[in-house]
Every structure is written in structure tokens, then in C-alpha cells.
Amino acid sequence: MIYNNSVNKRSVTLRIKGFVQGVFFRASAKDMADGLGLTGWVRNLPDGSVEAFFEGEEGKLKEALDWCRHGPPGARVKEVIEKWSEYCGESDAFRIRRGY
Questions:
Q1: Residue of 8, 15, 44, 97 with catalytic role
Q2: Which of 5, 26, 76, 98 is catalytic?
Q3: Could you tell me the residue ranges of all domains in the chain?
Q4: Strand order in the sheet with 76-86
Q5: Tens digits of residue pLDDT in 74-83
Q6: Which CATH architecture has domain 10-85?
Q7: d(CA 55, CA 53)
Q8: Where are the beta strands (DSSP E) in the chain?
């Protein structure tokens, strides 16, 4: 029997809008993703929003999405735009990307 390691795994890209920069959103998102065993990245965008890409088990991705709807203390999330896609195994860890 061949075990498919990507069963129940997906990817989701999020655009988080609101007061989300300067409140440790990226560092907190990394801690959350590491705790859930997710891979991907998070970065600030020039318009003041945050973009995040998560890969992993679908249930864990939904937990990450729920967290992103609130963010860390000090954040005021107004909107989260989500785009779901197939798992592609792009990354082996979760990283904070610097710059745009």
C-alpha cells in the first residue's frame, strides 16, 4: 500500500487587512503555525496588510484561519480574504518573509 502524504492537506493564502502591522502579527503567526505543524510564510505588504501562505492538514489550516481573523493582542483585523488551493509542498517550515 502506498501512503499519500498529501491526503487531507491543502494550501490557503490569506490577505489580512486592518491594523495588522507593528503589532507582532508576523512573529505571532509564525508561533501559531509552528504550534499547528503548518508550513509556509507570512509577510507585510506595502498597503499595510499582511499576506500569509499556509500548507498542511485542512483542519489545522482552518484553525490558522480562525486565529488570523483576530490576530495577536493589539491587532484589529477588519477583513480576511482567503484563497484555497491544492497542497503543493512548497516549504518545509514556516518563515517570516522580510520586505515586499
A1: 44
A2: 26
A3: 10-85
A4: 76-86, 9-19, 50-57, 39-44, 94-96
A5: 999 999 999 9
A6: 2-Layer Sandwich (3.30)
A7: 7
A8: 9-19, 39-44, 50-57, 76-86, 94-96
pTM, 2 dp: 0.91
Is 44 labeled as catalytic in the residue annotation?
A: yes
According to the model, what pLDDT value does residue 29 have? 98
d(CA 75, CA 35): 20
pLDDT in tens, 40-55: 999 999 999 999 999 9
Return left, alpha or beta for 64; rule: phi > 0 is left, psi -120 to 50 is alpha, else beta: alpha
Lookup result for grid cell 522580510: 98
Told to judge if 26 belongs to the known catalytic residues of this protein, a careful annotator would answer yes
